[in-house]
Each structure stands twice: as structure tokens, then as C-alpha cells.
Sequence to fold (121 residues):
Amino acid sequence: QVQLVESGGGLVQAGGSLRLSCAASGRIFSINAMAWYRQGPGKQRELVADITSGGSTMYADSVKGRFTISRDNVKNTVLLQMNSLKPEDTAVYYCNAGIIPRGFLSSQNYWGQGIQVTVSS
Fold:
């Protein structure tokens, strides 16, 4: 069984920083792209940033220059460093990964349970 577990959320004032971490565990053969999504109050879930297994990154326009995604392929983790946070960054943040479990031939899509980030003005 494969699971993703997020950590690092919380409450921060506008202009502050937080770092989210997501660890993949279980019977993992390989991990393809990893990503962070978020869902704000009354909004649809949106892609924040993603990173390929080779390290190529993509960011939503709303977070470019403020957020940085990175990964550790040995520890099977993905990080999201969030700087210059704004109240509109308030959301539940979800880790997502395409993982080939041991014994499988194709990638499966996995989600973390979500973690709350609240930015006060």
C-alpha cells in the first residue's frame, strides 16, 4: 500500500513563510511527477506547482517568484517552500504523485489527506 503524508501547514501572518513537506511511503517501485494542489474556501482545487522526476518545475502564475517546489528522490519527498504569503494563499494544500507501486506495470495517481494553510492579514 502506498500513501502520501503531508506536514508543515499552519497559521502565519501575511508576508511570512511556511514549508510544506510530503513523504511517500509503502511498496514503491518509482515515482514520476509530484505536485502540490490547493483548494481555497468556495473554490475549485487548483494546481500550485509540479516537478518531474528529472527536476523540471512548473508554477501557477499566482505563486511564481514566491513558492519553490523541490524533491528528494532518495527520501521520496516533495517540498513546497512558500514565501511572501498572502491571505489569498489560504487553502487546504494537497500533495499529489504519480507512483508505480511494486508489482504494477503502470503509474497510479495518489493524493495526500490535505493540510491547512491559513494566512492572516
